[in-house]
Amino acid sequence: MDEQRFNMSMRKFLKAVGVTSQQAIERVVREGGLSGKGTLKVKMVLTAENSALDHVVEGDIDLG
């Protein structure tokens, strides 16, 4: 495995996840009129075909 190619590919994927996830959260807050209303409980599930990868991250976003 080419370590540099792997790292670049992974970084590209993670950047896309971060950008599109932020846009989705901002949209749901805006369209749902949630701004300034407590916290938004979020959960991200990462899986990969043909592997045992099953990673969950949960958290709260302060809606200020």
Name the descriptors:
1 helix, single chain, alpha+beta, two-stranded antiparallel sheet, 64 residues
Provide an overview of this structure.
This protein has 64 residues and is α+β, with helices and mostly antiparallel strands. The protein has one domain (3-62). 45% of the residues lie in helices and 28% in strands. It has one helix at 3-31; strands at residues 39-47, 54-62. It has a two-stranded antiparallel ribbon. The relative contact order is 0.15. The model has no long low-confidence stretch (mean pLDDT 96).
Helix-strand sequence:
HEE
- Largest sheet at a glance? 2 strands, antiparallel
Rg from C-alpha positions?
15 Å
Spatial strand order of the main sheet: 1-2
Question: How many domains comprise the coordinates?
Answer: 1
Q: What fraction of residues sit in β-strands?
A: 25-35%
In short:
The protein has 64 residues and is of the alpha+beta class.
Tell me the layout of helices and strands.
Blueprint lengths: L2 H29 L7 E9 L6 E9 L2
Antiparallel strand pairs: 1-2
